[in-house]
Amino acid sequence: MTRARTAVVVGSGPNGLAAAVRLAGHGLKVRVLEAADTPGGGARTSELTVPGLLHDVCSAVHPFGVASPYLASLPLVEHGLRWRWPEVDLVHPLDDGSAGVLVGDVDRTAAGMGVDRNAWRRVFGPIVTRFDDLAPDVLGPLLRVPSHPLALARFGLRAGLPATVLAKAFRTPQARALLMGCAAHLFQPLNRPLSASVGVMLVAAGHRHGWPVAEGGSQAITSALASVLAERGGTIECNAPVTSLADLPGADVTLFDTTPQAVAEILGDRLGGRRARRYRSFAFGPAAFKVDIAVRQGIPWTNESARRAGTVHLGGGAGEVAAAEAAVVAGRMPQRPFVLVGQQYLADPTRSVDGVHPIWAYAHVPAGYEGDATAVVLDRIESYAPGFRSRIVAAHSTSATGYESYNPNYVGGDIGGGANTPLQMIGRPLFAADPYATGVDGMYLCSASTPPGAGVHGMCGAGAAASALRGLGISVTSLGGQGQAARTRRMWRA
């Protein structure tokens, strides 16, 4: 009788679970080891303020989740995952009460852009049209031969620019601010090459698939992945930290949903010199300071569209966004930092209790920031929604250092798995033909520190699992096919 091949996955974040599910789907017997007492990593939900009120602990809104080729290939609907869409996906209000508004497809959004109507279609229309073909190439290692080179080249002409340069394609402050707010998700200076990349992808994903939330909280994504894994025979063991090789059970392959530094510590002398040096020097970026707020009757935004939006970016004009991001990267706390606000309850009312609604908000702050930015975040919201503070029932803050305590992968409060410098975006975690392989036989890195980086899309885990399967001589199907993914997305929308 042939012995069943085995796999161990260290960490149960979305990438660890995605890797485990893919390995189990190819017949491996999979164990997931999680240091915390519950699985999920960045995709957990908890009652942080008022009993019954559901707050997402980290990840909250999921344009890349619904757009992910790998997640769309899984029967997550059958395992309880329901995506819910707000009436308006994203609003970026300005100080004069106007706003950039992303709502639905590119034509509906462009229709509200005034003189920038045609420019918005020209920049984003071609990418949106080919988005589902483009996604497997963009949401994977960049140092490889693409499946759709022309579509990727068209994307690259925009994504490779500094965000400050691409913003000049638009004449109105509303359109420029809307793009720059999306680009700010990079947590990097927005005048650098490639700094438009995340913004372009977020806008295009929004136009193609929207910016949905998971019904019941982001924990529902974890629960659905865990359920698929259990159906395929895999197991999750919580309260099982791994800090050295002695903590690892024997397995044919081992995957780490951890930082590169953690892998270097665990593997020690078994890790080759070049990789050991690169893993230990892997750079992390600025941090998030999060405030979860229980608000009676919601936020009284001055801008009407913001009252219907699942996500609101508070950053002021394009220049102010750029200045704030440059400051936090340089280690300075801006007086008016970029703040993201999530109103997930508008799409998913199950999160609210008796007219009190959960509000998710975080500010970009310097790495390892030790100050208390609670008042800064609340003041930022109040400036666009006078009377907001009087509606607050309770609040709960998570500092940059608190985030690292919550999840060791968030070094210094960096929730993105590593700094998105141009070189580190291309060679993440290092320049190699296989960025997931550690160079140690049977050992692979599958966290957000690998391509394509941050986001609840599972593509880092799926890519690492594919690498591990190929190492075992097992054929792996490409994620580029559209049949099952398209059917699954139609089910999500139903």
UniProtKB/TrEMBL annotation:
Pfam families: NAD_binding_8. Coiled coil: none annotated. This is Phytoene dehydrogenase-related protein. It comes from Rhodococcus maanshanensis.
